[in-house]
Amino acid sequence: MGLYNEQVLPRIIDVFCGMKTADQYRQRACAGLHGRVVEVGFGSGLNVPFYPAAVTEVVAIEPSDTAWKIAGDRVAASPVPITRAGLDGQSLPLDTGSCDTALSTWTLCTIPDVATALAEIRRVLKPGGTLHFVDHGLAPDEGVRRWQHRLDPLEQRLFGGCHLTRSIPELLTGAGFRITEIEQFYEKGAPRVLAADSLGVAVSP
C-alpha cells in the first residue's frame, strides 16, 4: 500500500472526516441502529459518540491498522463493546444472519468491489435488517457530474481509491436492498464535486 496510504492518509481522513460539520450527518445515519451492528469502514471511530442506546455490540470492519490505532481512545471510552472483527468489507468473517443492523459512513465510495461488499452486508444481516448509510457520490446536476468524472482519477490516487462517480442509490438497489429512507443533498461549505451526499436507510429482504 505504501507509506502514504498506510500511515499518512488515515490521519488525513481522521482530521477531515472528523470536522464538526459532519457530526449532524453521522448522528442521523446512526439513528435507529440497534442490537448487534456491523460497521463496515469503522475508520478512526468517528461514529462512536453517535451510537444509540439500543446498540448492544459493534463489530468493526477496518483495513487500516493506523486508523484502528487512532480509534483507540474512542473505542476505550465507548459504553458499547466494540470488536475489530475483520479487515475487508468484501469478506465479512461473520455468520449469516448474525447482525441486526449495519452502518456505513463515507465508505461505499472507496471499497474496490462494492457490489461484493454489499452482498456480504446483506448476508450477515437478519431478514428485515437495515443498513444505515451516508456517502458521497455522483451528483444530481450534470455540470457537477462532468467535473466529477474529470477529477475522479485524481481523487482515487489521493484518497486511497475513493470514487466521486458512484451512484449510491443505484449500488444499493442493485445489491437487492430496498431503500426506505433517503435524502440527497450537497454538504454546506464543501465543493460540490466532493459533497453530493446520500443519507438514509435500506432494508435487506
From TrEMBL:
Methyltransferase type domain mapped to chain residues: 38-132
Protein name: SAM-dependent methyltransferase
Key word Transferase present: yes
Record keywords: Methyltransferase, Transferase
Family matches, as SUPFAM superfamilies: S-adenosyl-L-methionine-dependent methyltransferases
Any coiled-coil regions, as ranges: none
Signal peptide per UniProt: none
Pfam families the UniProt entry points to: Methyltransf_11
Database matches in InterPro entries: Methyltransf_11, SAM-dependent_MTases_sf, Thiol_S-MT
One GO MF term: methyltransferase activity
